[in-house]
Amino acid sequence: LALKDIENNNPNRVYGVGIHIGPDGNKSFQSTSGTLFAKDYTTAEGIEISNTITDGGFIGNPSGTISRKTFGGQMFQNYSEWASSTSTILSENDLKVNLQSAVNYFENTRGIILHTEIDVLSNLEDDLSQVVYVVQDSTISPQSVPSTWNFPNNTDLNYVHKDVHIGCIDGRGMGRQITEENKVDKDGNVLNGNKYYLNYSYRLPDQYNPENIHLLIYVYNKSTFEIYQVIKQDIIE
Fold first, then answer.
1. What is the mean pLDDT of residues 109-127?
2. What is the DSSP letter of 142?
3. CA-to-CA distance for 188 and 190, rounded, in angstroms?
4. Global pTM?
5. What are the backbone angles phi and psi of residue 37, rounded to the nearest 5°?
6. Can you spell out the DSSP letters for 24-60?
7. Residue 14 has what pLDDT?
């Protein structure tokens, strides 16, 4: 709810995603239990991400990062701090990378072709990578909730999980490094300047409705893990 409020207050400027995992890739924080809590929301890429970026500030859930930027020496924050940190980043408005994307979805094969353009602004010399999350808009399954919500046995049987990470388009949790080899347009022409092109192909698993799926595309600094820019791309436009 806290994340959705931030998104709603900053339309088209903030995008959230729920990666279900614990510190250092520990799945015990998201373990299944019996038939009621049988849905496993963890992903191999989510575990890879957690193993790579976890710092001492991530001691349990709910916890999250705001563009993986460090505040007070820590990357991970309690949800009560997210709104303030988001406002700080938006106020700085320090755009280092501009992203554009286009997608083709082929209904018969459930294939997705994604084209991305990365325009690195100024003379940024950071070592950059791009990641593409595959995200489920919403799904319903039981969830343990606070007693103050007044659900029987502190369980909401019809809890709506929002923006659930179901994997990465290329299976790489930390993405693809952006190199000089990516300075080639769709026609194979080598380009000058700071524009790069990365393309992806993916088959959407049968259990997912393409109208309930979107992609989050972001570029980050490989040394600090800070995310410089993110955009959302719907599968069905």
1. 89
2. -
3. 6
4. 0.92
5. -110, 55
6. GG-GGGG--BTTTB------HHHHHHHHHH--TT--S
7. 96
